[in-house]
Amino acid sequence: MAEQNDKTAPATLMDVAKKAGVSIATASRVLNGSTRKVRNDSYVKVMEAAKKLNYRPNAYAQAVAKGTAPSIVLLVSDISDPYFASVSQGVVKAAGEQGVAVTIGVAAGPKEELEAVRKAVATRPRGIIISESEYVDAPERTALEAELKQYEASGGRAVFILNRNLPFPAVDVANEVGARAIAKLVVDSGYRRPAILKGDDNHRSSRERLAGVLDVLGKAGISVDPRAVANGRFSRTEGYAAVMQLARTGLLTAGDGALYDGAGVDAVIALNDVMAIGAMTALRANGIEPGREIGVTGFGDIPYSADVHPSLTTVHLPLIEMGQAAVDCVLAAHDEDETAAPQPANRLIFVQSAPDIVLRESLPRR
Hints:
Layout: H1 13-20, H2 24-31, H3 40-53, H4 59-65, E1 71-76, H5 82-97, E2 101-106, H6 110-122, E3 127-131, H7 141-153, E4 157-161, E5 170-173, H8 175-188, E6 194-198, H9 204-219, E7 229-231, H10 236-248, E8 267-270, H11 273-285, E9 295-297, E10 314-316, H12 319-332, E11 348-352, E12 356-358
Parallel strand pairs: 1-2, 1-3, 3-4, 4-5, 5-11, 6-7, 6-8, 8-9
Antiparallel strand pairs: 10-12
């Protein structure tokens, strides 16, 4: 096979690593001037492969390998959402303590996310943290993975907050465990006729939380009418709209045609907090006092959940700690040496294996 020294197709760091029989990280440490340790035999192999392939390192890769790139890019779906605001707070705090600046970008969906990652790479950050929309079946998934692999090959580190089974480190929480716990609380509190507010079907957290809730309800002998499961798109306004639609169509409250053989709904299980808050507003708009006539639960424990009236029963997620863990993962990548045990690229960083339930006024015992 001809060596890749054609000017029209310059050798990449991946080419050098493959020819030398070492990892991309090892090749980067040798060629980009990292201060981390590399075994002498690996060093020789990489240098020989680079010479044969006429490889030329770039200045950006050298800067990242030496740990001098000054910033982390954080991408979120919606900076106005208290969930992402809390995660961002954790990222900014942890990075600031290490003298690293954070640039925050907004990417509402998979297409915008891919474009934002491409722009972020061009700014030469030390790391890219993606706290994103979680659309697991998006057609942009393959291109996103390729873009981030190329970025990591040059010495950067990509970390996800919540995992989509991509080959990158991810901070995760036990979505299904938390969902089972909140559903059990609903059942144990005496509710038998729930409406459920979920997200889009290809949204990972929504899938996991819905599966946990439905399993617990099913085991309790509660058959959920498909019309009682509405898409609130993890949005306050859409959560409000979903409950208003249940009311307009006569499904919500007792009467002919209402859910559960005309008895209507006695609880709203929202799979995130902002949908729950929107639902409570919609209930009031229909003359129903949440927490008295209909119980309401959320998921996430955003700061506002304790301040709304009635205060929201929810699943606590350590949002600030999730952001901090992502920063720790980015910065730890620059402290690893060649003698350290290799870490799987898609390892999960669980900051909470069993989410806590916060019982507040919105779900009184019946």
